[in-house]
Hints:
There is one protein chain. The chain has 190 residues and is of the alpha/beta class. It has one domain: Maf protein (Alpha-Beta Complex), CATH 3.90.950.10. The protein is built from 6 helices and 7 strands; from the N terminus they run E-H-E-H-E-E-H-E-E-H-E-H-H. Strands 1, 2, 3, 4, 5, 6 and 7 form a 7-stranded mixed β-sheet that branches. A hairpin with a 2-residue loop joins strand 3 and strand 4. The structure holds thymidine-5'-triphosphate. The site of thymidine-5'-triphosphate has 23 residues, from helix 1, strand 3 and helix 5. It comes from Tardibacter chloracetimidivorans. Belongs to the Maf family. YhdE subfamily. Its EC number is 3.6.1.9. Keywords: Cytoplasm, Hydrolase, Nucleotide metabolism.
Amino acid sequence: MPGLVLASSSPRRRDLLGQIGVIPSRIAEPLVDEAPLKGELPRDHALRLAVAKAQAVARGPDEIVLAGDTCVGAGRRILPKADTPDVVRQCLELLGGRRHDVWSAVAVIDGSGRLRSRNVRSVVAFKQLDSAEIEAYLESGEGVGKAGGYAIQGSAAALIRAMSGSYSGVVGLPLFETRALLRTAGYPLG
Ligand SMILES: Cc1cn([C@H]2C[C@H](O)[C@@H](COP(=O)(O)OP(=O)(O)OP(=O)(O)O)O2)c(=O)[nH]c1=O
């Protein structure tokens, strides 16, 4: 059975793979500049970074490499991965009361070096958020380190009116597409 390298520092991606019974034989942190290019659209950004992360990690003989990227987009605008509570606040002020896109890209390089990728769009609708709700969410600390400043898998779920698309993709790895790519790459999955 070919080994699987997960090119990700994200514990969420490891957990999501575990949810479908996939245990990487190796985890490697991809060192990639995640800054958007000038004028880059959210969908292009997610795909470019997933591919770059997969390519940044060395592949041993008979190893498959998998990487992903999650990008939150408000129209043509890319929201940052919130690194401080202030950025979380700015994101929530923008996202409250409207719909936004979450692009979830996954890239797989197979044992012969062939790259395949998928990019999934989800749409998430937040309720109108008043300042007390935003401050309460900031208190939770859950938004820091997350694309768009929130995590759907935590207390933010209670502020989300609706979503369509891939729930696992919003969390960090679209599992339907990931399974299909892994199978095509020769990784044995039932
Ligand atoms: C929108 C959203 C994002 N996120 C997370 C998933 C990703 O970890 C993060 C987006 O950053 P990414 O750059 O996709 O991933 P990462 O930096 O955590 O890990 P790596 O690049 O090493 O693979 O935001 C959630 O956990 N829940 C959500 O609802």
